């Protein structure tokens, strides 16, 4: 958990934002909005080029959380092509999914430089499960 907090601190200070889209852009990570069906998003890396894939059908706030989650993979697990993020994987016990969820929540809601978000906004607008927020404190 401390490693995640440290990485978020360094990224938000370096790029002067907690917006995952801005950070991804500054890091040279391509963000693609695609029709993904039931899949919310995923991270991939091909020939040293990093990609964040986001379902184009979800609302903008959910896209922000998905981008933050996938950015977590890009930062914490850069050489692992992650499985598709689906709604049920927000509760995954898989270590890398837990770390990516922690990264996303801490980036967007705890260490933000920009406008802060309440728990209710996180649940209702961003689609973050309340259980996930409670487990991260």
From TrEMBL:
Location of the IrrE N-terminal-like domain: 24-109
Organism: Evansella vedderi
Superkingdom in the source lineage: Bacteria
Protein name: Zn-dependent peptidase ImmA (M78 family)
Source taxonomy: Bacteria, Bacillati, Bacillota, Bacilli, Bacillales
Entries under PANTHER family matching the protein: ANTITOXIN HIGA1, BLL7220 PROTEIN
